[in-house]
Amino acid sequence: MRLLPLAPSGLRRRSPHRLPSCSLALLLLSLGCCLEVSRVAAGSRRPNVVLLLTDDQDEVLGGMTPLKKTKALIGEMGMTFSSAYVPSALCCPSRASILTGKYPHNHHVVNNTLEGNCSSRSWQKIQEPNTFPAILRSACGYQTFFAGKYLNEYGAPDAGGLEHVPLGWSYWYALEKNSKYYNYTLSINGKARKHGENYSVDYLTDVLVSY
Fold it and tell me: What are the residue boundaries of the Sulfatase N-terminal domain, all occurrences included (predicted)?
């Protein structure tokens, strides 16, 4: 896991530290941002918070080998943690933990299916109002932006379809269900927009950058 420094340029980067979980880092970051609100009146600015989440960059399998620009522009400019821990190796439970700061036995997302609470009605009702984005927006006054894959079953008809926009997001550009780079559908603030297989106009990464 790599974090980009939020401090002003010129400060030295610290040596790697062991981090218990991504959720703990996000919790502390959110609390710090909320505390910063009290200093706005004194003329200081609240920090911007950017989280880039990627899948399957396995070190043993060489998942980062072809991503030379990613390593140069993000990895080498940030901080590397030699040890990081996740509450679950499964995609949807892990993402749910990042969003809520909870272990799976507390947010009850146990696998990548609706039956396993992945973007289910229950998740939307109980957990989504208490995610970090929801807290940052309601309690701290932040504008929030999401683009890319949310949870594996997001957009399922039995869970509100693409019209459902989770609480806490000012701008919402979410991929229907799992990762696809072509022939996919996005929820643009609750409205479906389909894309085909034309590289120049439909490649997902370029489309998301345009927003």
Answer: 47-208
Kindly list the distances between the CA atom of residue 106 and the CA atoms of 23, 32, 42, 129, 140, in Å, as whole numbers in the listed order: 13, 24, 38, 15, 24
Whether 188 shows a pLDDT value over 50: the answer reads yes
Closest CA to 159 of 168, 150, 169: 150
Q: Which residue has the tokens 């509450």?
A: 87
Smallest Cα–Cα separation from 30: which of 115, 162, 104, 141? 141
Task: Name the token pair of 30.
Answer: 């959110």
Q: What dihedral do alpha carbons 46, 47, 50, 51 form, nearest 10°?
A: -90
* Tokens read off for 107: 């947010």
Instruction: Name which of 11-15, 81-85, 111-115, 154-158 the model is least confident about.
Output: 11-15
Instruction: Name the CA dihedral angle for 33, 37, 43, 45, rounded to a multiple of 10 degrees.
Output: 30
Nearest Cα to Cα of residue 98 among 124, 133, 74: 133
The residue annotated as part of the active site, out of 22, 33, 91, 92, is 91
For the chain, domain boundaries: 89-210
Tens digit of each residue's pLDDT (9 = 90 or more) over 60-105: 888 888 889 988 988 888 887 888 788 898 999 999 999 999 999 9
Write out the two tokens for 171: 């701008």
